[in-house]
């Protein structure tokens, strides 16, 4: 299996070592540990990029996308975003938490079956359209993960400040205003991507003429995900709701998104992975 090659193992080992350096810096601020963690993470990104390019080049058809490759792209996007945040905003705690999630995705992905493709064989559409559909969905999910991490950090800091339990580690967190802003921007990116993903599915269903698919659990829950994030934006931009309420709602929307990604795959008639 592809996941058992030495190249994939090297990515995991480098990733784990990078997280150890980041955790060491988080526990006891150390500039050398931070540089080592960032350097290793950049090397992980290079290895992931090379692995991804070689994997995609090996496909004779883009419709051969498997769950393994989709999750690998998702993990690659998380590393890319975390490196950008580390470079321009220097929020080490955010980088650490996001990459813990990214590492978990890569590790769990070893148990998937790379030979399986999404059960979309009766999607009689062009490979390019399928590629765009999958790419937009993965990018949207990555943006929502980033937003959820910022909201979780926001709630943690808000509660500690409210209880007047200050610690030296909290000084390394960005301000509540910045975390609220970054969570908002991430949703601003993810929501349009989700809308475009759903739109492609609607176009195909309309052309296919099988209108019963509009009631498919995956399709219905995708609408719930989009509406949850749209309501978050409505509260943020028009109602001017307080940050802690927005953060709670954002995490609730993230739970709906997880249900859409994990649970409804077992009940969907045309979005199954096995």
TrEMBL record:
Keyword check for Transmembrane helix: yes
Which keywords annotate this record? Membrane, Transmembrane, Transmembrane helix
Q: Name the Pfam families on file.
A: Cytochrom_C_asm
Which stretches are transmembrane?
6-24, 36-58, 64-86, 93-111, 131-157, 182-207, 219-234, 246-267
* Membrane topology qualifier: Multi-pass membrane protein
Ranges where the Cytochrome c assembly protein domain occurs: 67-265
Q: Which domain of life is it from?
A: Bacteria
Write out the annotated subcellular location.
Membrane
**Where is it predominantly found?**
membrane
Keyword field contains Amino-acid biosynthesis: no
What is the recorded name of this protein? Cytochrome c biogenesis protein CcsA
């Amino acid at each position: 299996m592809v996941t058992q090659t030495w190249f994939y193992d090297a990515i995991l080992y480098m990733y784990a070592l990078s997280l150890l350096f980041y955790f060491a810096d988080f526990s006891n601020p150390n500039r050398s540990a931070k540089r080592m963690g960032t350097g290793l993470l950049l090397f992980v990104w290079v290895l992931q990029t090379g692995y991804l390019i070689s994997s995609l080049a090996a496909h004779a058809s883009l419709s051969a996308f498997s769950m393994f490759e989709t999750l690998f792209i998702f993990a690659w996007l998380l590393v890319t975003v975390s490196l950008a945040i580390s470079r321009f905003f220097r929020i080490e705690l955010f980088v650490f938490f996001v990459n813990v999630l990214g590492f978990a995705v890569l590790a769990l992905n070893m148990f998937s079956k790379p030979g399986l493709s999404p059960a979309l064989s009766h999607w009689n559409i062009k490979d390019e359209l399928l590629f765009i559909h999958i790419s937009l969905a993965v990018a949207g999910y990555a943006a929502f993960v980033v937003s959820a991490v910022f909201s979780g950090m926001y709630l943690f800091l808000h509660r500690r400040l409210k209880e007047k339990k200050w610690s030296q580690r909290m000084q390394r967190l960005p301000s509540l205003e910045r975390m609220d802003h970054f969570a908002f921007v991430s949703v601003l990116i993810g929501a349009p991507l989700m809308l475009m993903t759903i739109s492609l599915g609607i176009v195909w269903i309309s052309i296919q003429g099988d209108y019963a698919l509009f009631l498919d659990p995956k399709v219905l829950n995708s609408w719930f995900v989009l509406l949850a994030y749209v309501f978050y934006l409505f509260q943020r931009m028009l109602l001017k709701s307080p940050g802690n309420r927005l953060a709670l709602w954002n995490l609730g929307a993230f739970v709906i998104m997880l249900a859409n990604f994990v649970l409804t795959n077992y009940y969907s008639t045309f979005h199954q992975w096995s």
